[in-house]
Design brief:
11 helices, globular, eight-stranded mixed β-sheet, seven-stranded mixed β-sheet, about 400 residues, 18 strands, alpha/beta, about 35% helix
Length: about 400
């Protein structure tokens, strides 16, 4: 075997998984098709659970200068806003060009990790002895295969696990604007504009990420280009960003809401967006993926014998069960968020209820981040979220 574990995808989830597995004594090879750093559309607001996972992997985002996120604010254009505090610790604004490169560098520097950037996987196959990965540089053999290769995961497709997006398709326009540090202070802001939502997060000392979320037809304004439509919505939500220089280009993303037939089988596993994605509105995507990476690293660590098919099958079953628990929680929170943002009247009622009971939103944010179970939200909190 060339490696104990082959990880396809060298983004935050794949690189962090490699770090954690190497600390557990496993030999890991990471294949990343892009050269780093690279930019890609992403919410870039990392919730506290993700910050903690990276801390256990030896990465201190605060010391690295990533901006602090202390809360999440929801607001209606023209009045009304509520803020929920992140009580379990701060999140961080994580510009992907910086984060991906940092984690890849850390992973590559650890004994036991081979990080191959610019090396694309071209296909995979499984047999009783492990996995074979065909790459542009040759064949890689490993006991375990992990697909951490994003929303449209080729690994899921090669394994026959991929399914098309479900439900009403939603899309995003994502870009970055140069702005002073006081534009968002220490919070993620979600502004409801009727047919679209504007999600904004600090991504650097002098830069903010702004994403416009909605149906394909709602994102493009009649008579305007994609970039002009993006700026128009961003400036309606944040007039202080009017005229702010665009950093890089506007990226499109979506459709969202997809999940594979399974996340583990045989000696193969999926993690991160490859294991399912609902909607960027809740901002839990990277943190959820990092939490999955931590869980998978624990399951694949010694004393598990990677050459024992029975033990690997038990690890796969445990991973599927853990993912199912988290998936139920994420689906509930996402459904609630989309229901509220899809109706100005419901959103106004919910904001009024949360204004009377701020702890309700804080509890919901903890459920979204995985630090509290759905059962931890009391009847009075649910009533407040419903506007009562």
């Amino acid at each position: 075997m060339d490696a104990d574990v082959a990880v396809i995808g060298g983004g935050p989830v794949g690189a962090t998984l490699a770090l954690l597995l190497a600390r557990a004594g496993r030999r890991v090879t990471v294949l990343e098709k892009a050269q780093l750093p690279r930019d890609k559309p992403c919410g870039e607001g990392l919730m506290p659970s993700g910050v903690r996972v990276l801390a256990t992997a030896g990465v201190d985002l605060g010391a690295e200068g990533f901006p602090r996120v202390g809360g999440v604010r929801y607001r209606l254009l023209g009045g009304g806003s509520v803020r929920g505090e992140l009580r379990s610790g701060p999140g961080r604004g994580v510009r992907r060009t910086r984060l991906d490169a940092l984690l890849a560098e850390r992973a590559a520097s650890v004994a036991g990790v081979t990080f191959l950037a610019g090396c694309a996987a071209r296909g995979v196959s499984l047999d009783g002895g492990g996995a074979r990965v065909d790459t542009q540089a040759g064949v890689l053999r490993a006991r375990i295969l992990v697909g951490a290769d994003g929303l449209r995961s080729p690994v899921a497709r090669w394994l026959g696990w991929a399914r098309p997006p479900a439900g009403h398709p939603r899309y995003a326009l994502v870009g970055h604007l140069a702005a002073g540090g006081e534009t968002l202070r220490d919070e993620i802001v979600v502004t409801l504009l009727g047919t679209v939502e504007v999600y904004a997060a600090p991504s650097g000392p002098d830069e903010v990420l702004v994403a416009i979320l909605g149906s394909r037809g709602a994102l493009r304004r009649p008579g305007l280009s994609v970039t002009e439509s993006y700026r128009e919505a961003a400036e309606r939500a944040h007039p202080d960003l009017a005229g702010a220089p665009l950093v890089g280009r506007v990226h499109g993303a979506g459709p969202f809401r997809t999940w594979p037939r399974t996340v583990a089988g045989g000696c193969a596993f999926l993690a991160g967006d490859a294991a399912g994605f609902l909607d960027p509105l809740t901002g839990d995507g990277i943190a959820a993926g990092l939490t999955q990476a931590a869980a998978l690293a624990r399951l694949l660590a010694a004393p598990l014998d990677l050459a024992d098919a029975r033990q690997v099958a038990e690890a796969a079953a445990a991973y599927r069960a853990e993912r199912a628990r988290h998936w139920r929680r994420r689906r509930t929170v996402t459904a609630l968020a989309l229901a509220l943002t899809g109706s100005t009247a419901l959103a106004r009622r919910a904001m009024a209820g949360v204004g009377r009971r701020p702890g309700a939103l804080q509890s919901l944010l903890e459920v979204n981040d995985g630090t509290r179970g759905l059962g931890g939200i009391g009847a009075r909190d649910w009533a407040a979220l419903a506007g009562f």
